[in-house]
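Dear colleague,

Thank you for sharing your sequence with our group. We've completed the structure prediction you requested, and as agreed, I am returning the results in plain text so they can be pasted directly into your records. Please verify that the sequence below matches your submission; if there's any discrepancy, let me know and we will rerun it promptly.
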Amino acid sequence: DFLLAINPESFRKFGNDTKPEGIILVETSAYAPGWGLQTDNLLCVPMADIVQKVTGRQTSINDVALGVMAEILDFIDPEALERVMLRRFPRQYEALNRQAYLAGRTYVQEKGVESMHPGRLQSDFPADLCDDTGDHPSEE
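Please find the predicted C-alpha cells below.
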C-alpha cells in the first residue's frame, strides 16, 4: 500500500510490488526509471537535500520522510506523529529531528503534492532525475 524508498536498492526491490492504488515515496537520488511499477502514485522528494540543508546532517532523513508522510496521508495526525517520533528518538537529537520533520511538512505545503510526480520536477532537478515519462519494463 505504501513504500518509502530512501535508497535505490529499496526502490528496485520493492517498487514493483506496490499495489496499483498504493503510494511510493522515493528519495530523488534513489529513483530510477525503467521499473515495472503498478502505481502511478509515485512521489519524488529530495529528502537528502532537505535534511542536509536544514540540519547539516544526513542522519535525520527518516524524519523528513515522516514529515512528508504526515502531509500526504490524510489518516495521519501530524501533531500526534511528531509527538510519537520525538518520544522514540534520543532526546539529544530532539531539535534536529523536529527541524527535519517540519522541513518535510513544509516542503509538501510549499510545493504541493502534484509537483512531486517525477515528470514535474524538471525545474528543481537535472533532467535525468525523477524523469518518469513513459512505460517501463519490469526489472525481471
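Summary note from our side: Residues 94-111 form the longest helix (18 residues).

Kind regards,
the structure core
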